[in-house]
């Protein structure tokens, strides 16, 4: 999932450089959502791992 966030971030940067503001904004928004979903899954996984060991 982090890979997809980075891909959308790169698409947003390239679109912004080329002047496609709408596509850049949408790609940046999707990348931000995917990044926060990745962080939530990471936190859940780490908490689950800690409780499984205890």
Q: What share of the residues does DSSP label as strand, in percent? A: under 5%
Shape: rod-shaped
Euclidean distance between termini CA atoms: 28 Å
The total count of strands amounts to 0
Order of helices and strands: HH
Q: How many domains comprise the coordinates? A: 1
Q: Assign a percent range to the helix content.
A: over 70%
Radius of gyration: 15 Å
Which structural class do the helices and strands define? mainly alpha
Low-confidence stretches: none
Fold topology:
Elements: H1 2-18, H2 21-53
Helix pairs in contact: 1-2
Commentary on this structure:
- It contains two helices and no strands.
- It has helices spanning 2-18, 21-53.
- Helix 1 packs antiparallel against helix 2.
Summarize this structure briefly:
93% of the residues lie in helices and 0% in strands. With 54 residues, it is mainly alpha-helical.
List keywords for this structure.
0% strand, mainly alpha, single chain
